[in-house]
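PROTEIN–LIGAND DATA SHEET

This sheet pairs a single protein chain with one bound small molecule, S-adenosylmethionine, given as SMILES. Inputs appear in the order they were entered. The predicted three-dimensional arrangement of chain and ligand is reported afterwards as a C-alpha cell string under its own label.
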Amino acid sequence: MPQSATLAPRAAALDLIHTVFEHRRSLSDAQGGLATLPPEARARAARLAQEGLRQMDRADHLLRRALRKTPPDRVLWVLRLATVEMLGLGAAAHGVINDAVALTRGWAGEPKLTGLVNAVLRQMAQHSAQDWAQTPVPRLPAWLRGALQNAYGNPVTQAIEAAHQHPAPLDLTLRDGAEPPTGLAGQALPTGTLRLHHAGQVSALPGYDSGAWWVQDAAASLPARLLGQVQGASVLDICAAPGGKTMQLAAAGAKVTALDMSGPRLGRLHENLARTGLDAAVVQGDALHWTPDSPFDAILLDAPCSATGTIRRHPELPHLRNRADVKALCALQAQLLDRVLDPAQGLLRAGGRVVYCTCSLLPDEGEAQASAAMARHRVQAQRVCLPGLPDDWRTPEGGIRTRPDYWPDSGGIDGFYMIVLQHMG
Ligand SMILES: C[S@@+](CC[C@H](N)C(=O)[O-])C[C@H]1O[C@@H](n2cnc3c(N)ncnc32)[C@H](O)[C@@H]1O
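PREDICTION REPORTED AS:
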C-alpha cells in the first residue's frame, strides 16, 4: 500500500480516539466524522482505534520501560497505536514507524519528539509475540471492576476481562427463521443466531441488500424470543431504536409499536425496517409520558443502561462511564419499570407480559432491578424454556443472565440480563 494510503487511516484512528476522550463520545458516534474517507480506510481507522483502546494497557506496559517521562497525550497515543499495530495486530514495523514519525511531525513539530517516537518504536519493534502475550490482561477501571468482583467474585471478573480482549464475532439474526440466504455460511448457535467468525464488510455479505438478516449479538436476540408466540399480538417495544428487537417481533408476526425518544436512532430503525421489508408503527416519544389509545398484549422494555455487557464491541465504554452514570440509569430503569407494570398507566392490558432487559453486567441494572420491581408490583417472574440454553444461565429470581466469558470456544456472547414479568391479576 502506498504510504499516504496507510497514513490516512492511522491519522483518522488518532482523531477518533481524541474525539472519544475529548468529547466523551462513543467510537461509533465518533465515526460520523470519517465520512470523507473511502470505506476501506474508514474501516481500517475504526478497527485500529478499537484495538488501540482495547489493548492500550498492554502497550503502556511495554512503553513504560522505554519512556523516561510521559510525552504529550497525542504523542503517547501515536506510540500506543503503533505498538498495538506492530505487536498486537502483526503490522510490518517499517511502515508503522514511518507513519508514526510523520504523524508526530504533523502535530508536535518538534524534532525532539519525532526522534523520541522513532527511537521508542524501534525498541518496541524488538519485542516478540511472546513478550506481547505475556503482558498482563488489562483490568477494568476500579468503578466497574469492584462491582463485578462483588457480583461474581475474582476468578469470574478476570475471565470477563480476558474475554474483553477478543473482538466479538459477527452475529446475524435471520429474518425468515433458521434458513440462511444462499452463500452465507456460519455457525448456527442455540439462540437461533448465525455466527460469522471472519465476516469482512457487512454490507457486502449475501442477503444484506434483500434484508435477509440483521446484525444482533446472540444474547440480544434472546429477550424478544422470551415472548414466545406473538403472531397477531400487539407488542410495544419500548426503547426500540435502532430496532433489532422490533424486527424480530415483526418477523414473528406481532403488531409492533416501536417507541424511542431519539430521532437519529429512529432514523436507523426506519432504514432497518425498509431494508428488511418488515412493518412496525414507529413513534418518537418519551416512554415516561407517552400514552397509547389502548393497552398492549405485551411489552418489551430494553432499558437504557451502562451497556457494560458490550465492552468487547465498545472498549472505550469503561473509560467514558462512571458510578454516578450507573446510579442515574438505575433510577430511570426503575421509573420505566413502574410505568409499564402499573396497570393504571394504560400501557399493558390485564394479564399482559413484560420482558425487561438490559445489556449490562451489573446486577443493579438486572437481577436487583427485577427483584425490586416484583416487590413493588403484583407481578411474578414467568419461567420460559428456550431450548439449547444452559440451565446455569438462570438466575434465582427467575431471569436469565449472560456474560462475555460464556461460550469461550465459540467466540463468547454479550453480557445481558432478561426476565419475563407477568401480572398476577
Ligand atoms: C438499549 S438501547 C435500545 C436498543 C434496541 N432495543 C434494539 O434492540 O435495537 C436504549 C434506547 O433507549 C432509548 N431511550 C432512552 N430513554 C428513553 C425514554 N425515556 N423514552 C424512550 N426511549 C428512551 C434510547 O434512545 C435508546 O435508543
